[in-house]
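note to self: dont lose this again. the chain is below, predicted strucutre after it. 290 aa total, dont forget to put it in the shared folder this time
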Amino acid sequence: MTAKMALLLVNPNSRRGKASLPKVRSLLEQANIRYIERPADTRETTSETIANRAQEIDCVIVGGGDGSLNAAAPGLLQTKLPLGVLPLGTANDFARTVGLPLDLEAAVAVIAKGKTAPIDLGMANEHPFFNVASIGFSADLAMSLTEEAKKRWGKLGYAIVAARLLAGSRLFTAELEHDGRIEELRSFQVAVGNGRFYGGGMAVHADATAQDGMLDFYSLEVDHWWKLLTLLPSLRKGTQGSWNDVRAFSTKDLIIRTSKARAVNLDGELKTETPVHFSIIEKAVSVFVP
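---
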């Protein structure tokens, strides 16, 4: 491995984080990857730890899900340290987007080989995100899905809570500004993607990558929630843009405004709210890849 010292950040609250930690340490030692860990009693955020230890380390290894990666994003942006990903979360959508193995041993082997690729980050106001930002149904789902439910039920937890929310969901009105024009929309959910996958395997666009320098937008403008059931196969493939009830385009910059502030979900975490300005930072972070 090219890096001399790694900062290991395993989220103990992620689906497999705490239970996997002894195996992670063992695999890193077998791969001759030296590492330091964050003290368990620290009050630093993930990104503060990265920034404060930047002079001692050559890379950052994050073990957890997409929320764990999101927490590391500001620190990675600031320090430009390369990122190794150990997919220990519920959905691991970013790992799928960049083609990382979901097997722990194989993921450590990828880091040990030392090959990196630059990936883009989306920005929502001043908050970076790896995968997809959303307003509407997905944000409501993130608000309703507790850590306990995610750990206990995994992907089934998403489905259970989603089914409960669906029946009570309503369209919301928003103003969309992009590429020199302003449009009004009534939507069940809007999504803005940097990568391809989000929400446990949904795709924002069939051809999206985290290296194409573009944000992929879609808005689900269905008049009845049950119509979403017919859309589901397309949402999983990322072909929803071909439907009449879906507005979709790619851009580098857009603004969404709503009459009252609405939560914005970034990689499964509620980090900001409308009005929200989306932009992209190209080649923002280096990631160890196969």
